[in-house]
Amino acid sequence: MALLTPMTLEEAKQLGSLFGLQVAALRPIPRGSVNSNFAVSLGGDGSLGGDGSLGGDEQDKRAFLRVCEESNHEAVVMQNRLLGHLVEHGVPTPAPLLRVDGQGSVAEHAGKPVAAFPFCDGDWICQKMVDETRMRIVGEALATIHVAGDGYRGAPLSRFGPPQLRERVASLRTQSLAPELRDTVEMLASRLDETAAAVADLPETLVIHGDVFRDNVLWHEDGRLSAILDFESASYGHASFDLMVTLLAWCHGDTLSRDLARALVDGYQSCRELSREELDACYDQARAAAVRFAITRITDYELRPRGVVVYKDYRRFVARLEAIEAIGRGELATWLTG
What we know:
Number of helices: 11
Shape: globular
Number of strands: 9
Helix content: 40-55%
Largest sheet: 5 strands, antiparallel
Strand order of the largest sheet: 1-2-3-5-4
C-alpha cells in the first residue's frame, strides 16, 4: 500500500456513492509500495448499500477504497472475483463491495480502477510480537488460501515471474547505480537464472497470495487473526513458494528463526499436508522468493525519491538469501520439519 494518487474528500464522496457509501471523512493509509489506499468514515446510517456487508445504523462505520496503480480494469475485476471465491471458502479477507448501479465491483479515479471493501478492525504487529503461536495461525491461514484456491479457474499468472524479473534487471542495468548495488544486481540476476531453472517443471495449479507480509495481516487484541489483506499479487503458483515467502517475511529478525519457521510449517500442515515434492522444493523456492523481493525492492524503492513510499531495504532479502543458502539444499526440509 502507498500514496501515489491523491484523493480529495469530494472525490471520495463521489466514489463512495457508487458503492452505496455515504462518505463523511477520508484518511490516507501510507503503507507499502503498490496501491493508494484510503480509509473512509461513513455518515448517515452507515449503510454500505449493494450487498449491505456492514449494515446496522451506527454512525461510526468505515470502509476502504483502493486505487489500483499497476492493474487495469480487467485485472481488478479478475482479482475481485477471486476474492469473492476465497471468502466463500473461508479465507479471512474482506469481500469487495458491489456497485449499486449493477456495474460490477470496480469504479475509476484519475483514470485508474478503484475497488471498495468493508473496513477490517485489527492492528499490524511488529517483528518483536511474532511468536510461535502467531506463526501457527499464519500457517493455518495460508493453507486455507491454498485449499480454497486449489483448482480455481480464472486467477491471473504471476506479475513477478522470471520473465518479469529479468525485465526489471535489464532496466536496472541501464541505470547509474553505485558499485555495490550494481554488484548486487548481477548476483541476483545469476541467482534468478539458477532458481528459475530449478523450479521450472513444478506444477502451478493452485492460487497463492504471494505477499503475506506482516503489513498484510491484521490481528485482534486477543491474538486472533482478523484478516489477510492485499491479494494484488495473488496468482497461480506453487504452494512451497508461497510458504517460503511467508517464512522469509515473518521468521527472520536479526537471524532466521528455526522455531518460528517450524511453527509456521506445523500450522500449515495442520490444514494442508505438504507433499514430499513440495518439501523438497522449499530450498529453491525460498531462494526464488528472496531474489524476487530483493529485485522488486531495488526497483520499487532504490530508484524512487525518498518519501514517496515507506522505504523498504532490499538488503534484508539479500540477507535472507544468504541465510537459506547457509542451511543448504539437502538440509532445509529437515530444518523445517525436524
